[in-house]
Design goal:
heterodimer, A: mainly beta, 18-stranded antiparallel barrel, 3-stranded mixed β-sheet, 5 helices, about 45% strand, globular, B: mainly beta, 13-stranded antiparallel β-sheet, 4 helices, 15 strands, about 15% helix
Chain lengths: ~425, ~260
């Protein structure tokens, strides 16, 4: 229904209203109600300076109801409102971000329901953090906001200074990819490739995802080791071998009808550590990804690979903080440059969450005033593909509970690089967040 | 911002819990007076809510509320209750005799626990008049002491003791002057002097009452006389010796929703 609200949109809007009513009802009955309202405007810096789509939720509501002293139920929901640029589509979208029950049973904490997890010690870029699929329709959102909740059971067992965390995810959920024409697509199918035929893992117990992590602090060192057995939540197109090697050959583009899009089993062995030495905070995190192509002889499937991040932070006078990280991906069992190019173009986004093989990320923040207010320069530079994302931002806190963000998202680099693809999306934004 | 705020509040809580007194002080030296103030009876564990007002030169106020759980002098966990944008942020500190404190911060928006470097102890932030150093339990051996005089402060006769840091001590202050009740060795007021020996800040306790067998203040105020800025703290819902479990002081506990 062009220019108006279709049935799906109406249902979602109704759900949103119902959720709001539920929240107010919960608040009235003594449950804890909190959240925020966050209007946002994004203005394109190129071409016709279009008003961009608000990528962050307009509002978040969180309800917690205590069931005695050792159990609680929590619901966290987001409301998205599209703006002028996309008004012909769904104007309002309700997202049940998380909904779970906590139980505290002595040394064991249990959480069951739709959940979001955060593994790893590094900032934003975490090789060991593979439990949740992501909504990749707007890569400028923070990783925690991009994650999609999954139905799961989590347990934390604390014994003699160790914490053993175990997570079971029975149903597979794939990542959400950018909408066609949104300008955020990060890969292209070969010319002539037909429609994708998604081959999801069957919903059976042996296809469940499992994660186990053991944590321990030893003097001033926090260490954890982890294991994840699950699925790559972005499909791998199973292109015929010749088409992969010669993707522009019209002979093959004519015969391709549909492309099987498989979700592949992946196992990840991870480790991370964090410490404070002198006045520096330091951390490291690594994951070894054992893919279905263990021998490295199938060009359609990514070879086993290692990802690692090392980083640190430091505070200078007067009130300046610097955070620096180096990240790298090393794909194993590569025999020649042609194979390397194919492997590195694989669209898998497990671990670091970006198709980068060697990069640095940096954040410099200067605080001032009583609030304090913050001027921040953050960015990522991709050495291999000569691409960058630069994010200057000014944060103002005029009152308690109110934060204003004014900033830029500036992409640049070679056209084939991850960031070079998005140069047309350079934008300025203003976001005002009121928390309650 | 959140990290620094938590450090501030942690320091405040430590100060709050470490004032104390006992014994007689007749004919004592400055060092002996400060030692007796230091060797005080404190609860084995303690819970409290703390409301902190930050008051600017123009009179603008910002309010923070924090739940504190503490075990002895060594372990402390804090959870922000307000304002809403930092609610749920939690902080764990474990002190050691032989090395720097271990400190972790849990940020609910990111669902992550971060270890904090000790550099933050000198930072002053969010318009507050405290640094983490202000609130640390000062080590007696790090200072030399001089009894300046005796004088009346409010209703109490006090010793006034000057503490000067030894050369190798890492501190922002050139000296600290403390008022200690003669009868109970309670440390109720302190003046902090900057590196040029000018008065920078004044800290005062108020509303001191007995909880179980311990004297505990109901308020704490720090005024930065150079910036004309005040931080005013009120303690509430105080519980002592409730048998807090050691298990609480872990990074896993930080992530609980209560």
């Amino acid at each position: 229904m062009k220019g108006g609200m279709n049935m799906k949109g109406a249902i979602r809007l109704a759900l949103s209203v119902a959720m709001l009513c539920l929240c107010f009802s919960a608040a009235a009955s003594g449950a804890e109600l909190r959240g925020y309202v966050q209007p946002e405007v994004r203005l394109g810096l190129k071409g016709d300076h279009r008003i961009g789509r608000a990528g962050n939720p307009l509002a978040r509501l969180e309800i917690t109801s205590w069931l005695g002293s050792d159990a609680a139920a929590t619901i966290i929901s987001d409301l998205y409102i599209d703006n002028l640029a996309y008004q012909q589509q769904i104007p309002a979208e309700y997202d049940l971000r998380e909904a779970y029950v906590d139980m505290y049973l002595g040394p064991v904490d249990l959480r069951f329901g739709k959940q979001i997890f955060a593994w790893g010690k590094a900032d934003e870029i975490n090789p060991t953090d593979n439990l949740n699929p992501q909504n990749l329709s707007d890569p400028t959102r923070s990783k925690s906001d991009r994650k999609i909740g999954v139905l799961s059971l989590k347990s934390d067992l604390r014994v003699k200074g160790f914490t053993l965390e175990a997570i079971a995810i029975p149903n597979f959920v794939s990542s959400k990819l950018p909408e066609p024409g949104s300008g955020w697509e990060f890969f292209e199918m070969p010319p002539g490739a037909g429609p994708l035929r998604h081959l999801y893992p069957e919903n059976k117990i042996e296809n469940s995802e499992l994660g186990v992590k053991l944590l321990k602090s030893i003097r001033n060192l926090d260490i954890s080791v982890s294991y994840f057995s699950g699925w790559d939540d972005i499909f791998t197109p199973m292109l015929p071998r010749l088409a992969v090697i010669q993707p522009h050959d019209p002979q093959f583009s004519e015969v391709l009808v549909s492309i099987p899009a498989k979700y592949l089993r992946t196992r990840v062995m991870g480790a991370d550590l964090a410490t404070a030495i002198s006045d520096f905070g330091l951390w490291g995190e690594a994951g070894y990804f054992l893919t279905e192509d263990r021998d490295g002889d199938d060009p359609a499937i990514k070879n086993p690979y290692l990802q690692f991040v090392i980083g640190g932070d430091y505070s200078f006078e007067p009130r300046i903080k610097v955070n620096l990280q180096y990240l790298q991906e090393i794909i194993t069992k590569i025999d020649n440059d042609a194979e390397r190019e194919i492997e590195e173009s694989n669209i898998s986004r497990m671990g670091m969450g970006a198709m980068m093989t060697k990069a640095i990320s940096m954040r410099i923040a200067k605080e001032f005033g009583d609030a304090p207010h913050t001027l921040e320069l953050a960015g990522v530079y991709d050495f291999e593909n000569k691409g960058y994302l630069f994010k200057p931002q000014f944060t103002l806190s005029p009152f308690d509970g109110v934060i204003c963000h004014l900033g830029l998202n500036l992409f640049g680099g070679d056209g084939d690089s991850l960031f070079g693809r998005f140069t047309e999306n350079n934008e300025a934004y203003l976001r005002v967040k009121y928390s309650f | 911002v959140v990290r620094l705020t938590v450090l501030l509040v942690s320091g405040l809580a430590l100060t709050y819990f470490t004032i104390g007194f006992d014994g007689s002080t007749q004919g004592l030296t400055g060092e002996q007076i400060m030692q007796q103030a230091d060797e005080r009876a404190i609860p084995s564990d303690m819970k409290s809510d703390m409301t902190m007002k930050l008051i600017s030169k123009k009179g603008q106020e910002r309010v923070r509320t924090v739940r504190i759980i503490r075990q002895g002098d060594e372990k402390q966990i804090m959870r922000f209750l307000a304002p809403p944008d930092v609610r749920g942020t939690s902080f764990l500190r474990i002190s050691h005799d032989d090395r720097d404190d271990d400190m972790w911060l849990y940020l609910p928006a990111f669902k992550k626990v971060r270890r904090i470097a000790s550099r933050a102890r000198k930072e002053n932030f969010m318009g507050s008049d405290f640094t983490y150093e202000d609130m640390e339990k000062r080590k007696l051996k790090d200072y030399t002491y001089k009894l300046l005089r005796e004088e009346l402060l409010g209703d109490h006769q006090c010793y006034v003791v000057e503490s000067t840091p030894k050369e190798d001590v890492d501190t922002d202050y050139s000296k600290i002057v403390s008022w200690v009740w003669k009868d109970d060795h309670l440390l109720t007021k302190e003046e902090f002097y900057d590196s040029k020996a000018k008065l920078r800040k004044v800290k005062t306790m108020s509303g001191i009452e007995k909880h179980s067998e311990y004297w505990i203040p109901g308020g704490l105020k720090m005024e930065n006389v150079q910036k004309q800025h005040v931080t005013d703290i009120i303690f509430d819902k105080i519980e002592v010796d409730t048998g807090v479990e050691d298990d609480l002081f872990s990074t896993a506990y930080l992530q609980r929703i209560r």
